[in-house]
């Protein structure tokens, strides 16, 4: 519990104040690190630990300066804080990073496809862009016309798959006559800076082409089958004669 201060930094009796403490270390390449320890009251920093001493903040009240002098007299505590920040924290953080490196570096490319959702009204379309199987989780999916992002794009929740990858759907409601020329753009770290772009008109045309090709193949196979059956029937009839 710390006292409030009045004019001139004179301590006054009051209710307990909230104290915030931020302490730890940042590890950097080259086996270097930087430690930090900051203390604040009601969101205002009052002191920090620098090197091997406690240092009051520039705008700290007078009682903090007096408290800092007393803290610096305790050499045992200062030594313990220094060892925790400089000797214990960096190897601990590096160990955590090494243990999770495979997960941190995991990259899975997304798969994406377009579909039409339930019509939002007469003469309107709901365009749906599905993105699935990507990792890590951060991804940016937008409906575009050329290089202009379309207003009204609605992004769903990023949902997990059982294998640790993610799924997202992004929708856009438009007038049916305005759907041509729209595209869905996917940005993800696994794509190496090469955005994935799916064009609404082209994707649907491609789907129709695939359907026509499949139907045509089935018709050809059916015709060949009928021809073969007719030939066998004719040969059998001739044998009977």
TrEMBL record:
Chief localization: membrane
Keywords for the protein's UniProt record, in alphabetical order: Cell membrane, Endosome, Glycoprotein, Immunity, Immunoglobulin domain, Innate immunity, Lysosome, Membrane, Transmembrane, Transmembrane helix
Subcellular location: Cell membrane; Endosome membrane; Lysosome membrane
Biological processes per GO annotation: innate immune response
Any Pfam family the entry gives: MHC_I_3
Secretion signal, residue range per the UniProt entry: none
Residue intervals passing through the bilayer: 207-231
Domain (Ig-like) ranges: 110-190
GO annotation, cellular component aspect: endosome membrane; lysosomal membrane; plasma membrane
Membrane topology (UniProt): Single-pass type I membrane protein
PANTHER family xref list: ANTIGEN-PRESENTING GLYCOPROTEIN CD1D, MHC CLASS I-RELATED
Task of the protein: Antigen-presenting protein that binds self and non-self glycolipids and presents them to T-cell receptors on natural killer T-cells.
Protein name: CD1d molecule
Higher taxonomy: Eukaryota, Metazoa, Chordata, Craniata, Vertebrata
Gene from which the chain derives: canCD1d
């Amino acid at each position: 519990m710390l006292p409030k201060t009045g004019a001139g930094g004179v301590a006054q009796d009051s209710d307990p104040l909230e104290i915030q403490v931020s302490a730890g270390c940042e590890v950097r390449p080259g086996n270097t690190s930087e430690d930090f320890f900051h203390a604040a009251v009601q969101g205002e920093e009052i002191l920090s630990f620098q090197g091997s001493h406690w240092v009051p903040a520039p705008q700290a009240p007078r009682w903090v300066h007096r408290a800092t002098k007393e803290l610096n007299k305790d050499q045992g505590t200062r030594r313990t804080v220094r060892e925790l920040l400089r000797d214990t924290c960096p190897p601990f953080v590096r160990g955590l990073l090494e243990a999770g490196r495979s997960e941190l570096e995991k990259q899975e490319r997304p798969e994406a496809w377009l579909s039409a959702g339930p019509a939002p009204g007469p003469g309107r379309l709901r365009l749906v862009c599905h993105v699935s199987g990507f990792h890590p989780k951060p991804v940016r999916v937008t409906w575009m016309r050329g290089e202009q992002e379309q207003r009204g794009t609605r992004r769903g929740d990023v949902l997990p798959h059982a294998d640790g990858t993610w799924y997202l759907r992004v929708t856009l409601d438009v007038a049916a006559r305005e759907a041509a020329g729209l595209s869905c753009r996917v940005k993800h770290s696994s794509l190496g800076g090469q955005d994935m772009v799916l064009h609404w008109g082209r994707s649907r045309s491609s789907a129709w082409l695939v359907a026509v090709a499949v139907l045509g193949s089935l018709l050809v196979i059916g015709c060949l089958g009928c021809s073969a059956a007719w030939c066998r029937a004719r040969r059998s009839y001739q044998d009977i004669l």
